[in-house]
Amino acid sequence: MKTKNKPDRRAFEYSDFGPGLNTKEEHQLFAKIQEGIVYQYEKIFPDKLASRTVVIVPSLTLDMEILEQIKGSIHYEERLLCLLMLLRMPRTKVIYISSMPLSEVIVDYYLHLLHGITGQHARKRLTMLNCNDLSRKPLTQKILDRPRLIGRIKDLITDPKSTHLTCYNITPLEKSLAVKLGIPLFGTDPAMFYEGSKSGGRKTFRECGIDMPDGNEDLKTIEDIAGSLARLKRANPAIRKAVVKMNDGFSGDGNAIYRYPELTIDDSLEKNILETIYDNLRPVAKNLSIKVFLEKFNEMEGIVEEFLEGEIKVSPSVQCVIGTSDKIEIASTHDQLLGGDDGQIFVGAIFPADEEYATTLAEIGKKVSSHLAGKGVRGRFAVDFISVKQDDGSWIHYAIEINLRKGGTTHPFMMMQYLTNGYYDCEKGEYHTASGNKRFYFASDNVQNDKYIGITSEDLIDIAMFHELMYDGTTQEGVVFHLIGALSEFGKLGLVCIGSTPERAKELYDDTLRVLDFECEV
User: Fold this and answer.
1) Which CATH code, of 3.40.50.2000, 3.90.230.10, 3.10.50.30, 3.30.470.20, is assigned to 313-519?
2) b/e for 327-364, b at 16 or more Cβ within 10 A?
3) What SS3 string covers 175-227?
4) Among 300, 288, 277, which residue's Cα sits nearest to residue 223?
5) pLDDT of residue 116
6) DSSP per residue, 25-64
7) Residue 317: CB partners within 8 Å, gap ≥ 6?
8) Is the pTM above the cut of 0.70?
9) Are 289 and 354 in contact (CB under 8 A)?
């Protein structure tokens, strides 16, 4: 009987993809590869005509059970589509990887926003790849599980010295992918994760002499939580609420609110809190049980801190970029819009932050940036605050966390910056376009209404054009949509409403909601 010869070569070679995850060899290779990001930041990033390739992996590499609480979280991979605006630089190539194919309608929508570049020219320099995988795993894990996909990405990288990887957040998975691709990451080595955790943030604020809520960090067990809650009560008998936060929560969904019952402040205080904690602790994520929350807390560790009260209370943030140890940029400031029962969920932002304190936030951002730069932190990050207005009209800014990653304020600002070719003047707290005009925006990631379910991407574009909501490059005003893919299934989308005044930006936001409501009336 004749047998077929076995093949002696695979169609694809697996041997070029480096060491295993979290091995000593991988760490050494990563450190060597990362040396290249300094050259790119100093020489390539500022040169609009430089040849470069940007590999974009918009993976939310976060706890999947926490992430699952967010409607349409798979579509958050679309948030970094703002980086397609990099194609406005005529010698820049972009490789964008997603879990599932992104609609051509959505891609075309972003490409039409490019100023001075034809869609055809941009399309030649854009490669869209996907994993065809809707599973709950992080996108980066899906890529690592597909060596042939990694091979295709590597084949598209013609010059590793002018190529870098950008991600939503950086974990050992993104580090491993960078090593396998042989290109540096613009961001912080995940070995420094602690610096961006809730506990690490509190230590940084303390070392920098920055105000923060009373609390404790590096907590792990339910007994630790009870002990901290008891200490806060003894320090401030009038305290009504405290916040329990996992070290690596996302968008507020890693938080829980503790409401103090009537308690006697005596030697049994800690014991009484511990025995009744299930009655008084409520996770912010609606579908997350207290039991699961505490299990996750035990796994991630975290903090407990006072819930700040105030008649006038706001939630601003400052966004910073550390390029090298001595190159620090204050990219923007925002007033964040928080929702949920206790104002713990990020839903949007106003840019810039209020002129009463925008420059103060920038000064605090510089202090934190200098401190973190000395520790080796790189890339974009944000510092969030709770700010309380005092009776004399002054503000106290309590720093509450550091996010060593992109966040909800990153993509709206980058979109406006790319569209207007402008800059944020942190000394004045103002944004100016290339022509010197001031611009403002009102942005939200969480416009949601069940009435919008069924509106397709094509429908949204038709509606926006008919009602003249689209961003207009001549006036540099209008609405930019994102999370478009979540609209039809979840009735959810994001908006960046750019205006010449704060009032005009908010008017555009309100007009968009009125139009969508009108179009969905049956």
Assistant:
1) 3.30.470.20
2) ebbbbbbbbbbbebebbbbbbbbbbbbbeebbbbbbeb
3) HHHHHHHCCCECCCCHHHHHHHCHHHHHHHHHHHCCCCCCEEEEECCHHHHHH
4) 277
5) 87
6) HHHHHHHHHHHHHHHIIIIITT-TTS-EEEEEE----S-H
7) 333, 334, 336, 349, 353, 361, 382, 383, 384, 385, 409
8) yes
9) no
Task: Please name which of 445, 360, 373 lies closest in space to residue 409, comparing C-alpha atoms.
Answer: 445
Asked if 359 and 429 count as a contact pair (C-beta separation under 8 A), the reply is yes
The amino acid sitting at 7 is: P
pLDDT at site 115 = 86
Question: Could you tell me the two tokens for 176?
Answer: 């491993």
Task: Please provide the DSSP assignment of 91-150 as one string.
Answer: TEEEEEEESSPPPHHHHHHHHTT-SSS-HHHHHHTEEEEE----SSS-HHHHHHT-HHHH
* Amino acid identity at 191: A
- Sign, Cα dihedral of 210, 207, 203, 60: positive
- Rounded CA gap, 320 and 204, in Å? 15
pLDDT of residue 347: 78
* Segments of the chain scoring below 70 in pLDDT: 1-17, 63-69, 250-252, 340-345, 522
Give CA–CA dist 395/465, Å, rounded.
Answer: 42
pLDDT at 39: 93
Query: What is the structure's pLDDT at 149?
Result: 97
Question: pLDDT tens, 105-116?
Answer: 999 999 999 988
Q: What is the pLDDT of residue 61?
A: 76
Identify the CATH class of 24-186.
alpha beta
What is the number of alpha carbons within 13 Å of residue 300 lying toward its C-beta? 27
Q: How many CB atoms lie within 10 A of CB 300?
A: 19
Rounded to whole angstroms, the Cα distance separating 254 from 66 reads: 7
Q: Where in the chain is the domain with CATH 3.40.50?
A: 24-186
| Cβ partners under 8 Å of residue 101, min gap 6 | 128, 130, 132
Instruction: For the beta carbon of residue 250, count every other beta carbon within 10 angstroms.
Output: 24
Distances in Å between the Cα of 449 and the Cα atoms of 180, 211, 405, 488, 520 are 42, 38, 29, 11, 10
What residue ranges of the chain are covered by domains with CATH 3.30.470.20? Answer: 313-519
pLDDT digits (tens, 9 = 90+) for 475-517: 999 999 999 999 999 999 999 999 999 999 999 999 999 999 9
| Residues contacting 120, CB < 8 A, separation 6+ | none
CA distance 454 to 10: 45
Beta carbons of 496 and 480 less than 8 angstroms apart: yes
Distance CA 445, CA 129 (A): 24
Please give the helix or strand (H or E) that residue 306 lies within, else none.
strand 302-306
Place of tokens 């925006």: 441
pLDDT of residue 331: 95
Distance CA 376, CA 484 (A): 36
- At residue 220, what is the residue type? K
Q: What's the pLDDT at 489?
A: 94
